[in-house]
Specification:
The structure is a single chain. The chain has about 50 residues and is mainly α. The chain has a domain at about 25-40 and about 45-49. It has helices spanning about 10-20, 25-45. The chain is flat and about 35 Å long.
Length: about 50
């Protein structure tokens, strides 16, 4: 299986969900990092490629 063909957002969401279940205190940091990354990719789409 080629790793580059995996959709990135569902994979990140799945990993974040598991980590949040294990350590709920990390929820704030995970959400903040996710929003920063999504915002940067929205402002600078050339970073995604």
């Amino acid at each position: 299986m080629d790793l580059s063909s995996l959709p990135l957002t569902p994979l990140i969401s799945l990993i974040a969900g598991v980590v949040i279940l294990i350590m709920p205190r990390l929820l704030n940091y995970i959400v903040a990092i996710y929003l920063i990354i999504v915002g940067l990719l929205g402002l600078f789409p050339q970073l995604a490629s």
